[in-house]
Amino acid sequence: MVSLATRRIVLKGKLMDYITSIAIIPLLVGCMGIFGLFRFLQWIRMKAYIQDSVVVITGATSGLGKECAKVFYTAGAKLILCGRNNERLEELIRELIATNIKKTHRPHAVVFDLAESKTIVPAANEILKYSGHVDILINNAGVSYRGTIMDTALEVDKKVMETNYFGPVALTKAILPSMIEKKQGHIVVISSIQGKISVPFRSAYAASKHATQAFFDCLRAEVEQHDIEVTVISPGYIQTNLSLNALTADGSTYGVMDKNTANGRSPTEVAYAVLTAVGKKKKEVMVADLLPCLAVSLRTLFPRLFFYIMAMRARKERKGKTS
Ligand SMILES: NC(=O)C1=CN([C@@H]2O[C@H](COP(=O)(O)OP(=O)(O)OC[C@H]3O[C@@H](n4cnc5c(N)ncnc54)[C@H](OP(=O)(O)O)[C@@H]3O)[C@@H](O)[C@H]2O)C=CC1
Ligand SMILES: CCCCCCCCCCCCCCCC(=O)OCC(=O)COP(=O)(O)O
């Protein structure tokens, strides 16, 4: 015989089950709805931020810069594409126009060499004369390097530094007053995981990216008062021509597609990550696999272990070259 008390408990349990099953479903649906609405509003805000904005991209002739051109153009930006080779820029412009059904803003090419400091202010003036102002400046162009510190000519260290650090710094300084005057602007820089950790045989490149990270972190704090955003993007390996174009100890081009580069992320995926980071006004993002991200934490939390691993890596690489 089941007692009355037991029957009451069972009934109460069933009632609770019924209420929770009824309540949980609408609650879950409600939460998903709110989340979906939040994401939708975020997307609308991002779209409005990029659409019709004047976006300057350096290094647009290749790799990540070229893909950024495509995703920002599709998002409706007025592009100013910078590079050293006018023909390749014009070819990209023709490609963009051909793929755009809506035929929005015709991109404009500005040709200059970031490693030639005297060309930067005239280039910035040309940009400002053409568009009146710049909403988003994407400092993407860069060159990598492979070599031992002992064998590398100082001129090579300087060339890498000029391209990756002094060039973007000079361009940013030339554009910044117009942003301050407008009380609006967004400066983006494509750094690298190597702006946070240094790996052997990349001294000039890692140094230039560490300097980049430091400069733009200072800039972020200094221009906050003018409502200017600064985003530092630190990618891991991307499938581009970076290793092919890297400089070696004597200044010649490396000319090898590295395994890490070939197995890296697709430039399109990284370009979308750049678009999202800009749209969400992120201060900084790492676009990399787990291991490089862990290596960054290891460098901070357990530096001795990190340095040991790097020394092992250097030994292994040296052995690989001599055998
Ligand atoms: N690929 C990777 O694994 C990673 C790349 N990055 C960074 O991404 C950025 C883009 O490189 P990525 O697309 O990979 O490499 P690419 O070599 O494919 O592209 C580099 C771009 O920079 C331009 N550039 C190089 N030197 C100069 C210069 N002196 N003046 C003007 N433009 C110059 C190149 O122009 P040109 O065609 O005239 O040579 C090219 O458009 C770089 O800052 C790089 O450090 C960061 C992390 C990983
Ligand atoms: C808690 C466990 C942590 C384990 C950490 C182990 C450390 C492993 C070392 C990983 C090194 C990652 C280096 C990543 C470098 C990188 O992504 O660089 C991006 C670039 O800029 C590429 O330029 P490059 O010219 O070098 O091709």
UniProtKB/TrEMBL annotation:
UniProt KW keywords: Membrane, NAD, NADP, Oxidoreductase, Transmembrane, Transmembrane helix
Superkingdom of source: Eukaryota
Keyword NADP: yes
Keyword Protease carried by entry: no
Regions that span the bilayer: 18-41
Pfam families attached to this UniProt entry: adh_short (PF00106)
InterPro entries referenced in this protein's UniProt entry, alphabetically: NAD(P)-bd_dom_sf (IPR036291), Sc_DH/Rdtase_CS (IPR020904), SDR_fam (IPR002347)
Cellular component annotations (GO), alphabetically ordered: cytoplasm; membrane
UniProt-recorded Gene Ontology molecular function terms: oxidoreductase activity, acting on the CH-OH group of donors, NAD or NADP as acceptor
Family to which this protein belongs: Belongs to the short-chain dehydrogenases/reductases (SDR) family.
Function: Putative oxidoreductase.
NCBIfam families referenced in this protein's UniProt entry, alphabetically: PRK06181.1
PANTHER family from the UniProt entry: DEHYDROGENASE/REDUCTASE SDR FAMILY MEMBER 7B, DEHYDROGENASE_REDUCTASE SDR FAMILY MEMBER 7B
The protein's name: Dehydrogenase/reductase SDR family member 7B
Native source organism of the sequence: Monodelphis domestica
Gene that encodes it: DHRS7B
